[in-house]
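Suppose a colleague, Dr. K., hands you the sequence of a protein chain of 324 amino acids and asks what its three-dimensional shape might be. Before reaching for any lab equipment, you can write down a predicted structure in token form. Begin with the sequence itself:
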Amino acid sequence: MITIMIFDHLDTPMTLDQLMALDAIVQTGTFRAAAEHLHKSQSAISHMIKVLEDEAGAKLLSREDYRPTLTAEGRQFYAQASRVLHHARALKSTAHSLAADEETEIGIAYSETIPSEALVAAIEQVHQRFPATHIRLYKEMMGGALARLMEEKAQIILSSMAGIESDQVEAIPYRATTILPVAHPDFEPARIDSLKTIGDMYSYTQIVVADTSEGRFTQSRDVLSGSYRMTVSDFAMKKALIVSKQGWGGLPCYLVRDDVAAGRLKILAIDGFPPRRTRVYKIRRRDRAIGKVAAALWQALGTYEDQALIETGPGCPASMTNLA
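The predicted structure, expressed as tokens, is then:
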């Protein structure tokens, strides 16, 4: 069993299991849920917390309400315990990585906001070197890539930095992209070249994509609150509905620039809803060591400066200057 000495005057050292039990209670809200999360009995969890409190010399949890809550002393203790658990998990991850020659499986989650050619080329390069490793791809929208990273389903993600604490991850600029508000030229707002207000657009259906983060890292961008709305699962269906005059919405430049150039779609001039320029980053967690194959993929993905496929065309940026 791994033990961690918190106070050097204690006869019995605190254990990592005890700190994990406290963390599970705080995260799940009840002793029962913590027991299920850690695959232990509820009585075992209760005993570990009692011993932990005895060793700390302070009451860490208030049990007066239905859900246990941290006391003032408990909040101070838990802040330190969280740091210990963070470093312990990072150490365990490093040990596993050192013990393994090649991972049996790696995951990468990517935002559909950017084209996939560079990602496909990197995967091809890595798969040729490590054919036995199963590479699992997750196509995500909004906060979905971040969710896959924090759930440890993906070791690497290609995503914006929205909702991510910079000290939690290593993030390298990977691609620039622009979201353009577009509609079919025959869609009523597109027939008028003058600048439209947000209020003008409320009576027209906006096509939006669903966030795939399943709630935990939900993001909402470029959505008019209170307007008519149709929600889809990906950009392909969103574009199809816009092309068929069902509504309007924001789409990545690489998906629509040819249609705009050919007159099949039109960029809308909306006050308060201009083309949004943004960065997509190559991201991995700082507290998780990546294995040999994931490291090779990280290297193969390169950086923004390595990319030849910088967006060009109607409304597309030529550089990353002033990106959001």
